[in-house]
Design goal:
The protein is mainly α. The protein contains six helices and two strands. Strands 1-2 form a two-stranded antiparallel sheet.
Amino acid sequence: MKISLTDREADVMQALWESGPSTVAEVRERLADPLAYTTVLTVLRTLESKGFVGHEAVGRGHRFFASVQQRAARKNAVQHLTDKLFKGSAELLFSHLVSEQKLSAEQIRRMRQMLAEHADEEKPE
């Protein structure tokens, strides 16, 4: 499933991923931008129509929940970014991240460790 989110949709999804099933009012409280209740409800309904959110009836209201995992959404977003801005090259994306970010020694160490682990997984037996 291809997961594509607008900035506002990503904010709403983040609230659901962090806090679990929530009412419209609860999602609204967690957002940085002060949005109208109806705006949050519209975003949730749009996400539901895309298959990214579901809901269950709770009394007269609804409790919304994420139907896609955050990891899957991240993977899709990075792939989209890589395809659109880096000509599909993960190496160009990585190069950009390393050269443009102020990385701490610890972050560089962890990146090296991940690369080494990945290289070990790729070795033929």
